[in-house]
Amino acid sequence: MNPSEYEAMAAQLDQDAGLAPSEWDALAAPAVPGPLLRNQVILVSGSDLTPEPVRWLWHEWLALGKLHILAGAPGQGKTTIAISFAATITGGGRWPDGSRCTPGNVLIWSGEDDPADTLLPRLLAAGADRSRCHFVIGTRVHGEMQSFDPARDMGGLELEAARIGGIKLVIVDPVVSAVAGDSHKNTEVRRALQPLVDLASRLDAAMLGISHFSKGGAGGDPASRVVGSIAFTAVARVVMVAAKVNGEDGEDRRILARGKSNIGPDDGGFEYHIEQSEPLPGIHASYIAWGNGVAGTARELLTEPDGQDGNGEDKSAVEAAADFVRQVLADGITPAKTVKENAADAGVSWASVRRAADSLRVMKSKGTGGSWYWKLPHSTSQGAQGVQHSNVEHLEQVEHLEPKDTAGVDADVEDAEVF
Fold first, then answer.
1. What are the start-end ranges of the H helices in 204-314?
2. CA 268, chain centre distance (Å)
3. How many CA atoms lie within 13 A of 239 on its CB side?
4. What count of Cα atoms within 13 Å lies in the side-chain half-sphere of residue 251?
5. Structural domain boundaries enclosing 354
6. CA geometry: angle at 319 spanning 318 and 322, to 5°?
7. Domain presence at residue 11
8. What pLDDT shows up at residue 203?
9. pLDDT tens digit string along 248-295?
10. Which of 150, 184, 256, 355 is most buried by its number of CB atoms within 10 A?
11. CA distance 141 to 156
């Protein structure tokens, strides 16, 4: 555009918009030509990084900047446990192991409990400093009050948290509320959880998502029973589980245990009781009374004795692994290596996965590069997740073998049905 054309267009726009020439120059001056920008992958050398220890809010239980999951069956006081954590932080109290907590602020986003008649009374019953407790009750869009939408409002939440300052714990109850898509699909859950992971990191706070146990699977690995996709437990760095079990004296007892930890010990726990109090006249609420520490894995601490199959393995563990296999293969053909990596992330034993795959008649075949691929039979995939979508990229890499061709097949896929 030559100067005369620019001046003519500016004059016309001045007339149409009522802008002064100086205002038009500031708003509409042509950009200075520059090089074409393109996306760039950012790499960092290990020599430029400084090793750092995990920083704990509660040593080996709640890590700053990390995502955690607290899961259990209905009625086990999961929200009340999370409220107990919040009270300890806001009041600078002591954790169940007796260690002291530095005071901080908390954010609570609950899609199930009302802040005024449920959450605040529980916080007061637990001894919280109410001035340090902040509740997400919605968002204002174009002047109208709407429900909080993590896909849209996470940036605004971060700004408010930064304004408050000193946020050390963010509670999301239930964590599935952060997933706008299918909570049983790994890719959708991972994508939905990433903003929570990023928010925890930027606020330098512990992020605690509350979830439920899926039906069935009693006697199996408690961490693998978190409802929804295995991505919930895979993305979380620590998974805590709460359950009621029979004590040696025949009396019921409740236990909070670590079901999984990628950054510390994954065993041990604490007994707890749910008590009632009246923190204010006419206001009744429950709170957690912590008991003694207990040793053992979550599976040992939280499950009742179950029948075993002929190989000495709990049937329930195989059933839980079968749920895992259905989920991880729901999107279609999947590399066996990916299945194994996801099993490790979710705390599901590979032996149970292999037995579950056999029981589901998972179809297995060798790709052109020598790697193995798994796929659910059509009937199983229909019953588990609806119509199964083929992974075209993987499909193109798979050689169709005859069932008799098992030479060189390893123990993981021997005698498998191929596709």
1. 231-235, 298-302
2. 21
3. 30
4. 5
5. 315-395
6. 85
7. no
8. 94
9. 655 678 999 998 999 999 889 999 999 999 999 999 999 999 999 998
10. 256
11. 11
H or E element, residue 3: helix 3-17
Q: pLDDT class for 7, splitting at 50, 70, 90?
A: low
Neighbour tally for 276: CB within 10 Å? 9
Look up residue 347 and give its amino acid: G
Residue entry with tokens 């939408």: 149
Which residues share a beta bridge with 260? 239
Of 209, 245, 246, nearest in space to 227 by CA = 209
For 123, residues 6+ apart whose C-beta sits below 8 A from its C-beta are 83, 86, 87, 90, 130, 133
Asked whether residue 116 is domain-assigned, the answer is yes
Structure-block tokens of residue 220: 């199996």
The letter for the amino acid at 240 is M
Continuous H helices in 209-314: 231-235, 298-302
Neighbours of 21 (CB within 10 A): 11
The CATH number given to whatever domain includes residue 108 is 3.40.50.300
Average pLDDT of the chain to the nearest whole number: 78
- Residues 335-383: pLDDT tens digits? 888 888 888 777 777 888 888 888 888 888 877 777 888 988 865 444 4
Q: Looking at the 3D structure of the chain, how many domains does it have?
A: 2
